[in-house]
Amino acid sequence: MKTAGKVAQIPYTLTRRRSSKNIVLRVNDFGQVEVSAPFLTPKAMIEEFILANEEKLLARMAERRERHHHYTDGDRFLYEGRYTELSVVHGSTYHITEQDGILR
User: Fold this and answer.
1) How much of the chain, in percent, has pLDDT values that exceed 90?
2) Residue ranges of the domains in the chain?
3) pTM of the full predicted structure?
C-alpha cells in the first residue's frame, strides 16, 4: 500500500510491507524520497526517522536532480572519441542510431 506524505520540506512516498523489519529511506533517480516501513509502524515514528535524516536526504535529493539530464535537439556528446550531435526524433520505440555523425 503506497501513500504520499510530506515532512518539513521533504515530500515522500510511503510503502508499508509486512515482510519488512526496518524503515528504509531511498532517493530515486528523479530525486524523490521513497520510504519502506513495517506494516504496523506508526506514521509519527516514520516521520521522526525522516526528520532525523533530513540533512542527508536534502543533499541526496539535490545531487540526484543535478544528475538528471534532459536531452534536447542539438546537444553535443563525446561518442567513440569524437563529438557527435544529437537529433531527437519522437517515435513509438526507443533506440539510437548514428547517421552522418549525428545520433538519432
Assistant:
1) 45
2) 2-67, 70-104
3) 0.64
